Amino acid sequence: MRFVLLVIAALGLAACGGSETPNLLNVGASSDGPDEFAVVPRKPLVLPSDLNALPSPTPGGSNATDPTPAADAVAALGGRPGAALGTNGDGALVRHAMRFGSTSNIRATLAAEDLAFRRANNARFLERLFNTNVYFRAYASQTLDSYRELERMRRAGIRTPSAPPAAAFE
Hints:
single chain, mainly alpha, 8 helices, 41% helix
């Protein structure tokens, strides 16, 4: 009888604990704590040689002590930190892409042309009537069969090191 009362008391005390009570199988683990891998230390403060040459503060802008883990990792590996963030290396690419000019409303224009193409190609009467999406069927003739293209490249002698071995397709 005492044993039954002791078991009931133990179960009653265990049921009283809320989410604050640590789990007996995983002591101290909780999902609401900070992520220790997301904590990045701030850079040390450095006093500039000329305080009058400091730039004016910009709301929402970056700070000299803000952490930049991606740029720091690139610099530690011997690369150019600006290239990792896309600030220095993209100028030539942007100039080449815009060599014929640019259209400010290109997204709206492409969306309208795409809708006209889908309606003109393979749209059935009920799909036009109810304005349903026929994207995959409309563009089926322009879809690349990756396995057939891989076989064509291999027959032509083009190396494809990142593709699975040829035996995987047979």
